[in-house]
Specification:
single chain
């Protein structure tokens, strides 16, 4: 694709092959499209907790880490760059819902209740896209934007 764009936009570059942009690997293309760099974030919950840390301090620490992961994946999921963005976003949502279910009593009641509803909504609203993306991935060679062009109305 990059080669075709180069030929269309800069036909004079044919006379000087040294000026052609290097072809990018799929990983480099995704990273460039999202503005991400390798190691920007991890999908793992990587927080420092101690035995002495009260649960009311540990819980927000875990939830904030999950929020960072969720927010890091929103642009890639929305732009349909790679299915992993949607997957990682949904994993962060599920982990947040589970953390609130198991330890929500250390949060203010209204915060826990509101969070349960919001994370449930987010899980529900991303389910159709995840399901369709899984079906498409299993049945064809996936390309960015493919499912949007082929999903049922």
């Amino acid at each position: 694709m990059l080669f075709a764009v180069t030929l269309l936009c800069f036909p004079s570059s044919l006379s000087s092959p040294m000026r052609w942009p290097a072809l990018m690997s799929p990983l480099d293309s995704v990273l460039a499209a999202t503005g991400c760099h390798p190691g920007d974030y991890t999908g793992k919950v990587d927080v420092k907790l101690t035995a002495e840390m009260p649960a009311r301090c540990a819980m927000p620490t875990v939830l904030l880490q999950l929020l960072d992961t969720l927010e890091a994946n929103v642009p890639g999921a929305v732009r349909d760059i790679d299915t992993e963005f949607l997957h990682d976003l949904r994993v962060a949502v599920r982990r947040s819902r589970l953390a609130i279910k198991l330890c929500g009593d250390v949060l203010a009641a209204r915060v826990a209740e509101a969070s349960r509803g919001e994370f449930k909504w987010l899980g529900d609203v991303t389910t159709p896209s995840a399901t369709w993306t899984s079906i498409c991935s299993a049945t064809t060679t996936w390309r960015p934007g493919w499912w949007r062009r082929h999903r049922p109305s």
